[in-house]
Design a protein that fits this description.
HIT family, subunit A; 113 residues; 20% helix; five-stranded antiparallel sheet; 22% strand; alpha+beta
């Protein structure tokens, strides 16, 4: 694993409240939540951003499947939820390890930014 914070979390070198984990990914709570439910879905493999995932189609599909699973378990699927992938600094990416934000539990305005 690399030295980024999400790699350390994936390697269990840093503690966090893990909601879901399998061989390819994990889900945990965002430390700066923007909604009552704000989870991060990360691959265990270090991928800096979505731009760097072009050869990881199976993994990307798996991550989205986990998003759906988590949304259903958190009872967000019926009322609705938002998924966000920030790619690079101008889009708000602050941790350069691919991650999907899953937000819900309240009405989410549009446009978001």
């Amino acid at each position: 694993m690399c030295g980024c914070i999400f790699c350390k979390i994936a390697a269990h070198e840093m503690q966090t409240n893990i909601f879901y984990e399998d061989d390819l990914c994990m889900v945990f709570e965002d430390i700066n939540p923007q909604a009552p439910i704000h989870l991060l879905v990360i691959p265990k493999k270090h991928i800096a951003s979505l731009n760097d995932a072009e050869d990881d189609n199976d993994l990307l599909g798996h991550l989205l499947g986990v998003v759906v699973r988590v949304a259903k378990e958190k009872k967000l699927a019926e009322s609705g939820y938002r998924t966000v992938i920030n790619t690079n600094a101008d889009a708000g990416q602050t941790v350069f390890h691919l991650h999907i934000h899953v937000l819900g539990g309240r009405y989410l305005d549009w446009p978001p930014g």
